[in-house]
Batch of 2 targets.
Target 1
Amino acid sequence: MGLTRLLALVRKEFLALFRDPKSRMILIMPPLIQLVVFSYAATLEVRNVDVMVLNRDSGHWGAELTSRIEASPQFHLVQRTDDPAELREAIDREWVIAAVEIGADFSRDIESGVTAEMAVILDGRRSNASQIVSGYISSIAAGLAADTPAGQRLATVRVGTVARNWFNPNLEFKWFMVPGLVASIAMLVGLLVTSLSIARERELGTFDQLMVSPLRTHEILIGKVIPPILIGFLHITLFILAAVWIFGIPLRGSVIALYAAAFFYLVSLVGFGLFISALAATQQQAILGAFLFLVPAMLLSGFATPIANMPGWLQVLTYVNPLRYFLVIVRGVFLKDIPLAEIIAETAPMAVIAAITLPAAGWLFRSRLE
Amino acid sequence: MTTLRRGRVRRLTALIRKESFQIIRDPSSILIALVLPLILLFLFGYGVSLDTSRTNVGLVLEETTPVTLELAASFQNSRYFDVTVGHDRREFAEDLVQSRIGGILVIPNGFTADLTAARHPAVQVIVDGADPNTANFVQNYAAGTVSTWEAQRAAERALTATPLLVQQRFWFNPELKSRNFLVPGSIAIVMTLVGTLLTSMVIAREWERGTMEAMMATPVTAWELLAGKIVPYFLLGLASMSLCVGLAVFLFGVPFRGSILALYALSAAFLMPSLGQGLLISAVTKNQFLASQLALLSGFLPSFLLSGFIFEINSMPLVIQYVSMIVPARYLIPSLQSVFLAGDIWPMFLRSILVLLGFGLVLFAVAIRKTAKRIT
Amino acid sequence: MTATAKPVLVRLDGVVKRFGAGAPALDGVSGDIRGGEITGLVGPDGAGKTTLIRLMTGLMQPDGGVITVLDHDARKEAPAIQAAIGYMPQRFGLYEDLSVQENLDLYADMRGLPRRERPAVFDELLTFTDLKRFTDRLAGKLSGGMKQKLGLACALIRKPRLLLLDEPGVGVDPISRRELWKMVENLTTEGIGVVWSTAYLDEAEACDHVLLMNAGKLLYAGTPPGLTDRVAGRVKRLIGIKGSRRRLLARLLDDDKVVDGVIQGEAIRLVLAEGDDGDSVVKTAGAEADRLIPATPRFEDAFVDMLGGGPGGRSALAEAQAARPDGDGRPVIEARGLTKRFGDFTAADRITFDIPRGQIFGLLGPNGAGKSTTFKMLCGLLKPSEGEGRVAGFDLRRDAAEARNRLGYMAQKFSLYGDLSVGQNLDFFAGVYGLAGARRRERIAMMLDVFDLAPHASMSTKDLPLGLKQRLALAAAVMHEPEALFLDEPTSGVDPITRREFWTHINGLVEKGVTVLVTTHFMDEAEYCDRISLIYRGKSIALGSPDDLKASVATTDRPDPTMEDAFIALIEASEQEAAA
């Protein structure tokens, strides 16, 4: 008996989702936008930027440095100027992100073995990008320094740094971003679908129809929760496939463990979604509620910026964010093949969150029926 | 003629007054114009930080000599690293896998000998490539620390340490606080929320409740109806912006080097396309639910992602760069950051203002056409 | 003053309006609307009433034909029209978060009412609408009737020459409706032309002039008596019925000589075919009824006659259902001191009644009086603060699921899943009520067949015409053969033919032992009930059969009161009692 009812409910939820053009939009648009915008556009890498060179030196080394900067693949356009005012304007108006200033004595100093100086002016308004640009210019300068007579003499005693990039040899930003998308898409769609589902029925008047049926409250809630979880799994699977086949990201760890963790992740999310749904009287309120939850949840998860950079009191807040835990798991499983113990350690908090939010949402749902 | 004009003025002021009452009494206006901006500002002021100011690293001293200890001390004193010292790199491998540290710095066995024998001494930097941004910083800071250490050693021995010294000068934001550019950027996002999301929703609500129809059957013109919406939400947008600027300066300590005039001129210009978009969305959807979705999708998301707010537009694929050209926030954010950090750069501002007004004009024109006093 | 002497304010000439493909919403409508009288724009939902009013305001453009309003072409001179008319759209066009006074101020500014004149005009309107005490209250906090009056006041800010009211009677109880009607009647004495659109046919009877519409076509234009004349002498009442009047009605409806028939309290109201003298009816009734007496024709009689008569009396649905044994004689639905409090407001106060098997029980009352609250407590949508409700012997609190398994529910507003197809909706409700396997297939097939839904089985329900939606909603409610049916204003806005079809099924089911609880605004519908409880201010102020209630208010002036008369008299009596 109970199973027949539950199946009918779950099937109805799916049909309603797929037949309603508005709901279909929610299933299709966010994943598409995420895939295109985040995986291609949301990058903290810095490429194709413009820089300026002001070379007062007439000797060989100034020209050499200029041409090496011009040859760098990171820069799109290298402008030359003789006028400091023009340099200031170019930085001020963000025509270039950085400017290299080579002094008049540059070649002479190098030839005579004195430490030559060059200045790099960077746009602090974009401090993140300009720090990376500064790194590019420094390594060009280091290359030049090594080729100077003094540099060649010193080469053998210079302390080098040998970098080894574990898990992501070329430090490709996509390898960082795309696994994160697997987690965030499930959150976006799972939360939206859940939070809209009850609000939609309230708005259309079908909710009363459900309430007078022999369905028990917990059956209605379970029926509401299963479809978003299944859809969450579908999106997770699609994004894992895209990560591996479109973006060529290695999947090194246990897929089974990943899916097991994903289950708890989705359940905890759906708990939040149900909470919003129980509170919202209309679909529009549900959308705003979901938005109000999603923006902080995305920003305070380590999705784009590390949690370690946040102040301590804010880090505490991230403990209730399921995305925080699942991100560690999904990135870990993809790139690092993290041990099972670690996966379990990150899954446990999500299970706790689910164990609190689901009953709480159920309670809220019941009490709102009065 | 004058009575005609008087009627028009009276209708307009009545509409504005009505809208103001509604703004004050409607919780969703307060939510979007007041609570949401505060939340966003706090998130960007505190939560989102790109400054890898201090990273946990493991330092492996495979040999202990006066030289390596001196180098290790350099790392320990660096303001970029929180160092845990060990003697075997395997001690830290697990920490790196579990992201507890951002990198392992290894001063290898034989380092001292290599240094004295001029056999290319080297420090190994093992980073967590799973987080490329942090990995980059760790590499750069490690190299920087090594150079500084070398320079000190050379100075002590009166030697030429390096043939070339690169002086870095970060203009406008010498402490390299990402908060200083994120907070001004988020103010643009807040204005998008008020201008596009809130405006589109309140007009859609009038369609849903049938009040739009009742208004349209009075002598009011489509222009007056739109102006009656634009003026209050324009002012509300500026109020939200002012609140955010106040918080940015007094709470987050973001410097404000430009003029108030430039700030308001830029914000006012930006609200034009923003409001125009809101009007257009509501005229097309006439439904709050669709309007809110469309506003978030076409207003909030692009302002957030395709405006240079966090992500460099230059680094994006060309197609997306072209798309970003129609995102109004792209023209506001650099200017807004400049008003805060650089001061008044009028040529830049004027160009932004012109482009924004141009967008606004086009959007208003389309919105007016769509809001002609007709029900379809 | 003769009708022709009154000035023509609106002239409709072959007006056509289409929305997308399919049948036009308005198909060649022509007619006149005059000043100084109330013109009823009458027809069921979807007839095209709202579209026609919008065309007259100039907010919408016709696809064909000419509309002249106050000598202006509505196509080209909309601003001139809008400056001179008053318009109240369906939801009154009020700003719910503005106060009464602020709404009036806004409309005064919109219509350019000079400041000097305002105090006098506001005073007059507020007195007229009796809203003086509430000027500071937010419009959203007003009752339905008060909103209505405020909407009217806003439309009258600058005395218009033409006043357009789109379904002002919806969601308003008969008392408020009567008050509103009086106000509007007063306006006509000043020469204002009023258009009053309505789906209630009894409202139409009071109009000076009527445009009767159905499915985009104008069926009749003229005075109400002009329409009722077509059934003059053919409307009868069969009285003194022994045995089941429902079963008798079913038999009579299958008679060719009967055009239409409805239950009216203890009697049956019939419209006979043209030229018939009633012999065949008397013969069919045989010993079951005393005699056939003439009755005053009503608008609805004529409307049904015009549409070619009502449906037959057989309900395939009821025939397929096994008769329920009388059981232990215990009532199927019981309300015992049901009380619901919201904060310190008592929405329902110790409501007690019970409904024996095979009866129809009606909950009647003004809006906000507590009938919905009572209804919702009895079908388990609201938990009572005190008292208990039982359905089929099961306590709604303790055995809610068992109770719900035995009840069918049909909401006021169409509330099935609009995006699901007809078949999917039926399948869902079958599943929810635990029907499985062969029985499920059988019941679904039967519903599709009985309600003639099979040709539309794969259509999305939201695209169905109103009549089919109504059928589907009933199908979903009776799919699991419930013992008790809960119907919340089941036929508001539905055309009279569909309404009769609906009641044929209900009557058939009741004869098979199903018990029905219905809330209604329709006085006609109240007449179908075996017993009625009149709810007012949270209390049941009268309980009895429709004839009892009518008889209780009969006076020498009014020997044969209608249900609406009874309703109003009983409420007024209750108010006087409360005041005393």
Target 2
Amino acid sequence: MSFNKNVSAVKWEFGYWGSTIKNWYNQGLPEKKYPKIPTKITTLSATLYTTAWTYIWEKKGAIENERIELPNGIGVWGGAVYWPNQGFPIDNDVAEYFNFDKVQILVKVEQLFYPKFEIKILGEDSKTVTYIDLDGVERTFLKNEATIPTSMKWPIKDWETWNKIKEERLSLDNISKRFPDNWEKLLKIYRNRDFVLTLGGYPLGIFGTLAHLLGYENLFFYYYDKPDLIKDMLETFTDLWIAIWEEVISQVDIDCVNIWEDVSSGTASMVSPAIFKEFMTPYYKKLTDFLRSKDINIILLDTDGDCNELIPLFLDAGITGLYPMEASAGMDVLAARKKYPGLQILGGIPKSKILLGKKEIDRFLEPIGQLLKSGGYIPYGDHLIPPEVPWEDFKYYREKLNCMIDKKGSL
Amino acid sequence: MAILDDIYNATFKGNYKDIDGLVKKAVGDGINVHDIVNKALSAAMLEVGDKFGSGELYMPDMLLSAKAMKEAMEVLKPLIKGDSVLVEKGTVVIGTVKGDLHDIGKNLVITMAEGQGFKVIDLGIDTDYPKFVDAIKEHAPQIVAFSGLLTTTLANIPDHIKAIKDAGLRNKVVLAVGGAPVTRDFADRYGIEIYADDAASAAKEFIKVVQK
């Protein structure tokens, strides 16, 4: 990420759908270590959707060490996205097959609510279970489809609900309680690591956290109707994150920070530059100025979709890199590098074109060599690899990409 | 007329708090409901759609305008009932596909389609295959629209189409699909006639269908 041309890019993938991994096991991927879905609640970032998955399995009598079949709609992380994350499992077998680098690890500290909300089941029938989750959001989980639980109601509705949450769960006076009991042991591991260590992560973002706790529609209305509430939320969260990060950084060096936004749709940014400048830029700057003062110079931002218009705004606000650069949404990693030479880029490989076979794979990988030669780029599929992609095609793509990485861009 | 301009501007700017009063004033002044809908509300939403499509407006702008339009229609609906001038352009059956509970995109399409004079039958979220079939039989729509946000549930769309085919209804409707992970390639792969990048474009495509 530091544009050092003498160093090869890291080998990672963003991830895969559960159904993709299951297909690949049937198509030739050696099954050695089936992805294990986390069942214990830890931090909100790490285990947000664990509530839904575990509730179902507990009902079925599944036990901790039992092999639980991957639901089709669960994500399986591929190393490029920090882990643990959202209660999704980490892949082992694809990584071993392609000799991927070690997974990026998220520091185990609670960065959202302390204390968390109590899980409460609100209703259940043969198809669904509806519950209050650890972050206070009411979610519905479809038992049969087992897709990612859908948020139905949100805990922050107005000043009253916000002030209550702020007072009860976002205090700056008990930061030490946000660290786990085994923190000293973790510190030893973190200090002697051979992996990337990161802070931030899902659902921490200047847009993302608010969308997560208010709902997208409400957030869009509140930008106009309740701007002071939005700004107070952002002041509070950024103060909190700086306080937590300061405590962590005082004890262990951190490699990078990940910010989760998903602020762009398939065709454009969801918010205007005017909203960005008023409600996002000042708070990014607050965070990135702090991180730079601590010598953290890799600040990565996760936004799916077409974020072309926002790139200069992100850079101006101190963000250094973007992923997953969805090609299908119009993100062109070569054009982005040309226009913004200092932007760190991750992803950008058109996942949905891998199934088109060798000729097409050769075609889209060819220009990737230029980026690998210039550094500051980690190539991988531009989101979770879909189940339509056959193992043979993925194997061809990934083996060729690995070869290019080893040769620093040459074919 | 100044009041129609005011309603147009309030809709375009998403001023949903004031539009109720403006529409009531227009009705009180004896302005034809047909003109309020077509010359102010629908026209403003068309411009919103165009500017959204060209990147000049953003999702919050569109949601605010859609809310303004809805508020206005709440005032007008009792007056529209039985109005022979306001003939519906056509009928659209729409639902979020089986296994998917998201509805922002679907609701925006509904607002845009209603704004252009379509009767919209909203089947809601997590819509099972038979619901679409039953709705086609009951409402005889020209268009059936599938909405989906999750990549994994898009895999259910071929089964939705199969159910419609099996019921012998495929030739009676034009199919449409939209949602964040949907692409033109996806629509083409399953023979879905309409693919739109956004809600405003979808409504325009619907108009083309009924104009044929």
